[in-house]
Design a protein that fits this description.
69% helix, 68 residues, Helix Hairpins, 9% strand, mainly alpha, two-stranded antiparallel ribbon
Length: 68
């Protein structure tokens, strides 16, 4: 999970970019933070998707692994 401090920094840079142009270092920092945030989001989302179970009309539970 991305820390609260990093999320705050992402938001701070986003707000600043609306008012003034970011420096090259800030742009690089923003891109790195966003990449980390997206990678974390994908990991969490994939874990949620892997927990999904499908139930057919007869009540039989199938996981994604059973369907392949």
């Amino acid at each position: 999970m991305v820390s609260k401090e990093k999320l705050d920094r992402i938001n701070e840079l986003a707000r600043k970019s609306k008012v003034t142009e970011l420096t090259q270092e800030e742009k690089e920092e923003q891109q790195a933070l966003r990449s980390e945030y997206i990678a974390n989001f994908r990991e969490v989302f994939r874990g949620q998707l892997e927990q999904i179970k499908f139930v057919d009309e007869d009540g039989i539970v199938e996981t994604d692994k059973d369907m392949n």
